[in-house]
Design brief:
heterodimer, A: 320 residues, mainly alpha, MetI-like fold, 2 domains, 14 helices, 0% strand, globular, B: 511 residues, alpha+beta, Dipeptide-binding Protein, domain 1, Dipeptide-binding Protein, domain 3, ten-stranded mixed beta sheet, four-stranded antiparallel beta sheet, 20 strands, 32% helix, 22% strand, disordered N terminus
Chain lengths: 320, 511
């Protein structure tokens, strides 16, 4: 009998690879279907027919679509993601700094949002139907129902314009110290924390409460254990698997789904890069971003499932 | 929400205001001597990951401001009248009736790597704009050159293909920055007041003062940083929060907000750029002169200036020449809103049915609003306009200069001659109304090449009259673009280009 964890890993690796291929084909076709091409987008109002045809030749846009895709795949398999049409630099050189920026923003936000949300979820579960629970639920519902960009602008209005504590544009200069980074990222991170905290908090609360309904918790209660001990020692471990999944998905969301927040704070992350790349019809760059995004999602999804198996002995053992 | 915040902040700062005013008082005094030092931050739009430090690729406000801070052109312009100023060329003279131009270069000018700026560098830089495959927006300027010769290390002699008295002015174009001869790797070595220390395309430019800058008494601040703030609200945000000291190309709709800011001076950049509507002359329905005329009387320009630009615009007369330009033809009657006349002309034209006007945010942030307003004006004349909003993506390829009636926008060009030539001369590939008029072309030639200044002016007036009467472009207004300048700064002079004629970096100082 094969080990269930190993077969899980192999299976997920295969399906992940398939997803990547599908995504790259879809992104390729989608970008090609947009009106105008890279040559037109780059030249804009200066697009004379002669300049257009020269640039198309230069960028290899005259080849049929399948051939261009094939060239891209062949390059990508050898680790060559191609040259960015718009900036004439290797895609990797353009992408990596942006990816790092996105990761810094996402991980900072996650490092605050996830422990805070789980903590609040536990507190809410402990105080089920009491005032504290209601307040936490209400405030988090409140926060989640304000659109992300508005949250960003409200924070800017208060903390950048009125109080002047933090900059409104999250621009980090070369050689910035840790303090500079923290200062620049304060508002976007706060926005992202508010964006994600409600989901994780509510899911933690629900997960714990559903475990709390089981018989063994009743048993613990009858035994006379304190509610705190019941929740933390007995309920939480069994509620961990959904909490871990949502945490991982939250990080994935923070990495790829924050274009709006990046735009509000002029933060130069991956999201803005991809939007710019689409505007320029910069296919190699769009492709690289698309693949990178799906890779992030696949990896975190995988990690989420992997961790749920690890923390759940029932999933760890082979079925009889 | 934002509005409420604003009021509360004003109340809050009410007491502080008086104290600040005293602190700022020295700025109002005369005979200010510039102070050295400080880190200047400028926020401007048009940055992209596609940007490079090759001047030939400069084509956006961001790169134009970068050019003005890092590179030098032979000639510069400054002030609201776009007065010509010496750049690398200290002096210039024409001979053979405007055909040959001699430029004397600043003998002490150096590049950021220490090499002197010589005639050979200037010739190399200028001629590189017409190399094969060049997509420079100065290509047309240099294509008019027959040959450039060096007369020693500090003088060049330019022979044109045809006389042009605008030639020195056109050399102020921001993409004509001078680089060392033979440059292939463009790392930002120019001869401008600030040298590049860090450039991340689409994000940030950081520079420090260049100690060997050839102009004396300039470049007061220690460092200049240019932030990429493409989003209109990001620029307002930057100037409002004090993160930037100068923010350009601000939204006209934010003028009231900016006026209320205690820390910022609101100024207006008066350029020759304009947004308008193109009626294509080479096809139905606008091959019909009466219909074109009807449309020109069917738009209420004054109302458009009030509603779209908040009153901060100059009246347009369907020529690209604003009323404050030296060449402006005051003798050409201003077209005004006249619904009755428009209705009569429309009837006479024989056209019936709605007219589709295609536009997009690509043709200016207010393009769709302006088109909608035009529709309302025209409906009072019984002319039905159907506004179709097109996506910004692909607008320049699919709609602009392609469909019968569409929105257009033109950025400021260095001279009246250039915008007239690029947008309306028969042979220009960017002629976006398909305006082909031999009389107009001939007038343009005289306007730029006649030896007598008065004769040139009369010819320019004639060209404007022809365009006003027969052209396909409706140019209702020239926007005065709001800019925000921190009250901490002195020495800022608005001009016809963004950020103090692109040269604020070397002119301003912290008080």
């Amino acid at each position: 009998m094969r080990h269930p964890l190993l077969s899980f890993v192999i299976q997920r690796f295969g399906s992940g690879l398939l997803s990547l291929v599908v995504v790259s084909v879809l992104v390729f076709i989608g970008t090609a279907m947009l009106p105008g091409d890279a040559a037109q987008a780059i030249l804009g109002q200066d697009a004379t027919p002669q300049a257009l045809s020269e640039l198309r030749q230069e960028l290899g846009l005259n080849d049929p679509l399948y051939l261009r895709y094939w060239h891209w795949v062949a390059g990508a398999l050898q680790g060559d993601m191609g040259m960015s049409f718009s900036s004439n630099r290797p895609v990797v050189d353009v992408l990596i700094p942006r990816l790092i920026n996105s990761m810094i923003l996402a991980l900072s936000a996650a490092a605050i949002a996830i422990p805070l949300a789980i903590g609040l979820g536990i507190v809410a579960a402990l105080n089920r139907e009491k005032l504290l629970d209601r307040v936490i639920s209400m405030v988090s519902m409140w926060l989640v129902s304000i659109p992300a960009f508005l949250k960003g602008y409200i924070l800017i209005a208060i903390f950048a314009t009125h109080l002047g504590w933090f900059p409104g544009l999250a621009i980090v200069r070369r050689g910035a110290s840790l303090g500079d980074w923290a200062n620049a990222l304060a508002l976007p991170v706060a926005t992202l924390v508010f964006v994600t905290i409600a989901h994780t908090m509510r899911l933690t609360r629900t997960a714990i409460l559903s475990v709390m309904a089981s018989d063994y918790i009743l048993m613990a209660e009858i035994k006379g254990l304190s509610p705190r001990r019941i929740v933390i020692r007995h309920a939480l471990p069994n509620a961990l698997s959904p909490i871990l999944s949502i945490s991982m998905l939250t990080i994935a969301f923070l990495m790829v789904g924050v274009v709006v927040v990046e735009a509000v704070f002029s933060y130069t992350g991956m999201g803005k890069l991809m939007v710019d790349a689409v505007a320029y019809r910069d296919l190699p760059l769009v492709q690289a971003c698309g693949v990178c995004f799906s890779l992030v999602f696949i990896l975190f999804n995988f990690t989420a499932d992997f961790l749920s198996i690890l923390v759940n002995p029932r999933l760890r053992e082979p079925k009889a | 929400m934002i509005h409420f915040m604003n009021i509360s902040r004003r109340k809050f700062l009410g007491a502080a205001g008086a104290a600040t005013a005293i602190g700022l008082a020295p700025k109002l005094g005369f005979a200010q001597t510039p102070k050295s030092g400080g880190d200047l931050v400028i926020a401007i739009n048009g940055a992209s990951t596609a940007n490079s430090l090759d001047p030939r690729t400069f084509n956006s406000p961001y790169m134009a401001v970068l050019s003005g801070s890092v590179f030098s052109t032979l000639v510069e312009v400054d002030g609201p009248k776009a007065a010509l100023q010496p750049g690398l060329a200290l002096d210039w003279q024409e001979s053979q009736n405007g055909l040959v131009w001699t430029f004397d270069l600043a003998p002490n000018a150096k590049f950021h790597d220490g090499r002197p700026v010589r005639s050979a560098d200037v010739i190399f830089s200028l001629m590189s704009h017409i190399e094969e495959g060049s997509r420079s927006n100065s290509r047309a300027i240099i294509k008019a050159v027959d040959k450039i010769e060096a007369d020693g290390d500090h003088r060049i002699v330019v022979t044109l293909k045809a006389p042009n008295y605008y030639f020195p002015a056109s050399l102020s174009n921001y993409s004509l920055g001078i680089v060392p001869e033979g440059t292939t790797e463009f790392t930002g070595i120019g001869s401008g007041p600030y040298r590049v220390t860090n450039f991340v395309p689409g994000e940030i430019l950081e520079t420090e003062r260049f100690d060997d800058y050839f102009k004396s008494g300039k470049a007061h601040v220690d460092t200049v940083t240019i932030l990429a703030a493409n989003d209109p609200s990001a620029r307002i945000n930057a100037i409002q929060s004090g993160q930037a000291h100068i923010a350009g190309n601000l939204d006209a709709r934010a003028v009231t907000l900016l006026e209320a800011l205690p820390t910022v001076d609101l100024v207006f950049q008066s350029g020759m750029g304009f947004a308008g509507f193109n009626m294509m002359l080479d096809r139905a329905p606008f091959d019909n002169a009466l219909l074109r005329r009807a449309m020109k009387y069917a738009i209420d320009r004054e109302d458009l200036i009030q509603r779209i630009y908040g009153g901060h615009a100059r009246l347009g007369n369907d020529t690209p020449v604003p009323p404050d330009a030296g060449e402006y033809a005051a003798g050409v009657t201003q077209i005004t809103y006249d619904p009755d006349r428009a209705r009569d002309l429309f009837k006479q034209s024989g056209h019936s049915g709605p007219i589709v006007l295609q536009t997009s945010p690509a043709a200016g942030a207010a393009a769709v609003d302006a088109a909608t307003l035009f529709r309302e004006h025209a409906s009072r004349a019984g002319i039905e306009i159907e506004v179709k909003r097109e996506p910004a993506d692909g607008y320049w390829g699919k709609i602009w200069a392609q469909t019968p009636f569409h929105g257009t926008i033109w950025g400021a060009r260095p001279t009246v001659d250039m915008i007239m030539t690029v947008a309306y001369s028969s042979s220009s590939p960017a002629n976006d109304t398909a305006f082909k008029n031999p009389e107009f072309d001939a007038a343009l030639q005289v306007a730029r090449g006649a030896p007598d200044a008065e004769e040139r002016l009369q010819a320019s007036h004639l060209a404007q009259r022809i365009l006003n009467e027969n052209g396909g472009a409706i140019i209702p207004a020239f926007q005065d673009t709001p800019e925000g300048v921190s009250k901490q700064l002195a020495g800022y002079v608005t001009g016809t280009m963004a950020i103090g004629s692109l040269h604020a970096a070397e002119n301003v100082w912290f008080v």
